[in-house]
Structures are given as structure tokens and as C-alpha cells.
Amino acid sequence: MHALNAVAAKVSFVEIKTDKGHDAFLLEEPEMFATLRGFIDSAARTRGIAG
């Protein structure tokens, strides 16, 4: 992340706290879904394919 920021790459980082361990992405975590939804919606808008 730091290296990408150093070269002005468009990146972001989200840390989601959970008590489910490193496999939490396989389970329902509302904060994770909201983060992914924001990323996907933004990518769709950028490409002119937003629904």
C-alpha cells in the first residue's frame, strides 16, 4: 500500500474488524459488503455501466 501511494496509484485500504478470523470474508460481514458495494458501484460509474 505504501509503495503504491508513493507512486500516486489510486488505491485504498479498509480494515474490517471481526471476531471470525482470517476467513471472515467467506461469511456475512455487513461492513465488508458495504465496502465491496462502494468499490463495484464506483468502478461501474467510471466505466459508464452503472445501473
Percentage of residues assigned to helices:
40-55%
How many strand elements? 0
Structural class: mainly alpha
Q: What would you call the quaternary organization?
A: single chain
Topology as a string of helices (H) and strands (E): HH
What is the tally of helical segments? 2
Give the low-pLDDT segments. none
Keywords:
mainly alpha, flat, 2 helices, single chain, 51 residues
Give a verbal description of the structure:
The protein has 51 residues and is mostly helical. The protein has a domain at 18-51. It is 43% helix and 0% strand. It contains two helices and no strands. It has helices at 2-6, 30-46. It is flat. The model has no long low-confidence stretch (mean pLDDT 84).
Task: Lay out the secondary structure.
Layout lengths: L1 H5 L23 H17 L5
Condensed summary:
The chain is mainly α and 51 residues long. It contains two helices and no strands.
